Amino acid sequence: MINQTPAFDVISLGILVADTFAKPIRRFPAWGTLELIDYVDMQPGGCAVNTATDLVRLGFRAGVIGNVGEDGLGDFVLRVVASRGVDVRGVRRDPKVGTSFTFVMIAPDGERAFFHYVGANGTLTREAVDMDCITRARILDIGGTFVMPGIDGEPTAEILRRAQAMGVTTTLDTVWNSEIDQYATIKPALPHLDYFLPSLGEAQLIAKRESPADIAQFFLDHGVKTVGLKMGLDGCYIRNRKVEIKIPAYQVETVDNTGAGDAWRAGFLAGILQGWDLERIGHFANAVGALCVTAIGCTAGIKSLSETLAFMETAKPRRA
What we know:
By secondary structure, the protein is an alpha/beta fold. The chain has ten helices and 13 strands. α8 (about 260-275) runs antiparallel to α9.
């Protein structure tokens, strides 16, 4: 059965986090000492929240599915995300565990280090995932694989399989976690992915291969239809059975890299929704990612669809 009247352009299933940003972190204080910072802010974040927020900024209808705690941080995340225009009806509240939290430490050059509490993201289960929301979307985007133990592995594969059976396009991104067997965890999901969109580093961990071409071929051989690799300052690499493209990043002044990967994914999904070819999708995804890093926070730098397209008209590609 195919859903003919989708209520959402994208449903993002994944991690929801209360993020606190601190800048600049020039050095870590020794125990018992103190260092001063110039800026601190708290914002909702996490892969699902970031991508859904970015899509709404770009002019699309987006919702999130995930878990938060029944605590003040959970109240904060839901209130602010809803105020951005993101549908939060798919978010469950767990009274037994706190809302996920990340302390983001930003260096003067924009690079980051993190302290993270998994919290309620770790208790999301297959039974709690609202399949009705998913089957009312054009795209199901899963963001946070490898740090959602309640649905990672076979449960994720089942969610993707059911979504595809209802005519929903499926996409997935991962989160760095070197403490698990990444390949064994994600293998069941790969045959059910229309688009797999990890960072190059995460893909290297999974595939145990180095070059983008070899990595992409590995995932294509496992049933993925299209692979898109985020490569930071080197842009992106996109490949399927017919097309192979490497697209350079845009030149911008970096303020904060946080959320850039989720922004790139939002741009990629926007391109799918627009019906663009893969080359145009890659350029647009790079543009959304580039604008993201020009402001502090995961979503503050994101512009509208028309503004992003205008940026692409004048922005210069980064030289290799």
